[in-house]
Specification:
The complex is a heterodimer of chains A (327) and B (328).
Chain A: E1 8-10, E2 26-29, H1 35-39, E3 42-44, E4 47-51, E5 57-65, E6 73-75, E7 80-85, E8 95-97, E9 104-109, E10 113-125, E11 128-140, H2 149-155, E12 167-170, E13 182-183, E14 187-194, E15 197-198, E16 203-207, E17 213-217, E18 223-227, E19 245-261, E20 264-280, E21 287-288, H3 289-314
Parallel strand pairs in A: 11-20, 13-20
Antiparallel strand pairs in A: 1-7, 2-5, 3-4, 4-5, 5-6, 5-9, 7-10, 8-9, 10-11, 12-14, 14-15, 14-18, 16-17, 16-19, 19-20
Chain B: H1 2-9, H2 13-30, H3 60-66, H4 79-96, H5 99-104, H6 106-120, H7 130-155, H8 171-175, H9 177-184, E1 194-195, H10 199-221, H11 231-239, E2 245-249, H12 259-263, H13 270-273, H14 290-294, E3 301-305, E4 308-312, H15 315-327
Antiparallel strand pairs in B: 2-3, 3-4
Helix pairs in contact in B: 3-7, 6-10, 7-11
The chains are: A mainly beta (327), B mainly alpha (328).
Chain lengths: 327, 328
């Protein structure tokens, strides 16, 4: 396997089993584990950030375990290699943070665009090379930096990182920009890629915030498309259009591959990858064109009536002298 | 030079303005497709909600974002955005002064086109009475203060007072008709909705759509209907006296014929009545220079840039324009 650029080997922070041996899916999330940590974050277009030295946005990603995005536990960072790169493919050096804070990585995001961060591990188990890729794709955007369309379009396409054996890439929509958000009820698609090449036959599973899940097998183009489920139902007074929900995508596939790792032979390889993201209620859930047009037309009609009435009042009655001819 | 000056002074300013407005409209509403971006501190309603086509953004949108800031951040690096945004706005304003409204503003152009439509439809236009005019002038200042204070109040809740809802983060944009009208020119009607998610959002978007309905009727029967209430005009007015483009009047030459007042779309009476002040830029003035074109007195009204006359009332120019009009 080629060397990962900007790789940061992490020593086990706690006495945990190796990452590949963990049975539950692992994934990165920017959702803090406690209210205390939430207070330290700011909402930005790419999710929650902290403010670093000189005003630079800092992303903190917690490692979580489990396939239920709403209730997955927080883990200290296990052994593995951390790779991250910025929007211009520049290597980024993430720093692990302590288990007391929940465990994970943090890195500065000085540039506008998408940052990719990975936690990778390989291990031979029962004659199978287990390769695990935990990926986070995070956006850094501040409106204060402007909205140059050419710049934005240049930084929108998804990237794959050299040396990462298997990864999930979220496909962009044609009109997507830094302000776009995934919404319930709308389609969302992912590509399963092996060293940048599409993987056919990979099993891709999307799990919503409420635990709803769907599995799709990728075709020759490595693509798996889902329609994000609408699973936020509440009494109307409690409805929150900014309610963030997390989704989790898991992908895995096997292929025959003979080799040896650390003196241990294997006859096949099993790859698994995770990628998490967020989605929000779709605008049609709480917006109405019909009522909008109704209010506009009502106001226009009343205005026309008002102008007509005003002009009628302003019109002076014709003055006529009348004579009583009999008098 | 003399001949060039005579030519410029004899120009049909109304026709020139129409074409300039069309050019500015295309630039600000469609040039985003060509990746042209004049920044986000423009002193005109180049609506930021026109995602696809905008060639720049109205300063009021970032101003509301930038004043959505905690008090302590006003003294940190975050205030830099506020300062640079204002300085950029000021630099733009310095050049064209209030002519931004008369020549560049897309919403202003739309209102002028609606006035042209009204003429075609042979509808009578309305004017405000002097008392209504004096009262309405204040509305734009109130809106300006509110659009700064409300986002600031969201970030700085006062104990004991109710919290200002987050849905009022851009209070003016929510009720501004440009948010609905300008994106519609690129086929984007996504702003023409009511937002039922919260009571505040519902009230604000309803108000916005109601103002849109009033705007369509108002702009049809009243010249530059919305400009009387425009907080951008109020913001510009605060600095218009130090801008480079100025409207000057020589009171000694004024015969108080009132032609300048009669052609003024903004009903500015001072342009005819005031013979004392040298610089006459009222807060409602959009520097369309129709008053200069209508003035028959040599050098009585003039537009100057850094003190150099660029368009001046001349007898020759006045009669040339009259002849042209008579010939049409």
């Amino acid at each position: 396997m080629p060397e990962f650029r900007g790789a940061l080997p992490l020593a086990p922070l706690l006495l945990l089993p190796a990452l590949a041996a963990a049975t539950e899916p692992l994934w990165f999330s920017d959702l803090p584990p406690t209210a205390e940590w939430t207070e330290k974050t700011l909402r930005a277009h790419g999710g929650l950030v902290e403010r670093g030295r000189g005003g630079v946005s800092v992303k903190r990603l917690w490692l979580r375990a489990g396939d239920d995005p709403a209730h997955a536990s927080y883990l200290p960072m296990p052994a593995g290699e951390v790779v991250a790169e910025g929007p211009e493919r520049e290597p980024v050096a993430p720093k692990p943070f302590s288990a007391e804070a929940g465990g994970g990585i943090r890195f500065e995001m000085p540039e506008e665009g998408f940052y990719n961060a990975y936690l990778l591990s390989r291990e031979v188990r029962d004659g199978t090379l287990e390769t695990r890729v935990v990926k986070a794709e995070v956006l850094m955007h501040s409106c204060a930096n402007g909205h140059d369309r050419r710049f934005t379009e240049g930084r929108m396409p998804p990237r794959v990182t050299a040396g990462v054996p298997f990864e999930l890439v979220r496909e962009r929509k044609p009109d997507e920009d830094f302000h776009s958000r995934a919404a319930s009820g709308e389609p969302i698609a992912f590509l399963a890629l092996n060293q940048g090449e599409p993987v056919a036959g990979a099993e891709v599973r999307l799990i919503s915030n409420t635990g709803w899940g769907k599995t799709v097998i990728t075709g020759p183009d490595g693509r798996a498309e889902f329609r994000m489920v609408r699973d936020y139902f509440t009494d109307w007074p409690e409805f929150d259009k900014r309610r963030r929900q997390d989704y989790l995508v898991l992908a895995e596939y096997r292929r025959p591959l003979e080799g040896e790792l650390d003196g241990r032979p294997y006859a096949q390889a099993h790859y698994s990858a995770t990628l998490a993201g967020t989605y929000y209620p779709a605008e049609p859930e709480y917006q109405s064109y019909l009522y909008g047009l109704g209010v506009m037309l009502l106001a226009a009609t009343l205005s026309v009536g008002g102008v007509y009435h005003y002009r009628l009042r302003q019109r002076r009655p014709e003055r006529r002298e009348t004579f009583d001819e009999k008098a | 030079m003399k001949r060039l000056r005579a030519f410029v002074n004899g120009v049909d300013i109304q026709r020139f303005r129409t074409w300039f407005q069309l050019f500015a409209f295309v630039l600000l509403v469609y040039s985003g497709y060509l990746y042209i971006d004049l920044g986000n501190s423009l002193p005109v309603f180049a609506c930021g909600f026109n995602d696809a086509g905008r060639g720049g953004v109205c300063y009021l949108l970032p101003l509301q974002h930038q004043t959505h800031i905690p008090w302590e951040s006003l003294f940190s690096w975050r205030a830099l955005g506020l300062v640079t945004g204002f300085l950029t706005f000021f630099a733009w304003l310095l050049v064209l002064n209030k002519a931004w409204c008369g020549y560049v503003c897309p919403l202003g152009a739309i209102q002028d086109w609606m006035t042209a439509l009204r003429r075609r439809l042979r509808l009578r236009y309305s004017v405000y009475s002097l008392e209504s005019f004096t009262r309405l002038k204040k509305v734009k200042y109130i809106l300006l203060v509110l659009l700064i204070l409300i986002p600031f109040a969201i970030s700085n809740p006062v104990e004991g007072l109710p919290h200002v809802p987050e849905d009022m983060a851009t209070p003016f944009c929510t009720i501004c008709p440009a948010r609905m009208v300008i994106p519609a020119f690129t086929g984007d009607f996504s702003q023409w909705t009511l937002d039922f998610s919260t009571v505040t959002a519902l009230v604000m978007t309803s108000l916005g759509m109601a103002i849109l309905g009033i705007f369509f009727v108002g702009a049809l029967v009243n010249k530059r209907f919305f400009c009387f209430f425009c907080p951008m005009s109020a913001l510009q007015a605060l600095f218009s006296n130090i801008a480079l483009l100025k409207l000057r009047k020589d009171g000694d030459k004024c015969t108080r014929c009132g032609d300048c007042y009669r052609v003024c779309d903004m009903q500015i009476k001072a342009i005819a009545d005031d013979v004392e002040r040298k610089i006459l830029i009222e807060d409602d003035c959009m520097m369309c220079l129709k008053c200069v074109a209508a003035c028959p007195e040599e050098g009585c009204l003039k537009a100057t840039f850094m003190g150099i006359p660029v368009y001046e009332a001349t007898e020759e120019g006045f009669f040339r324009r009259q002849q042209r009009r008579g010939g049409e």
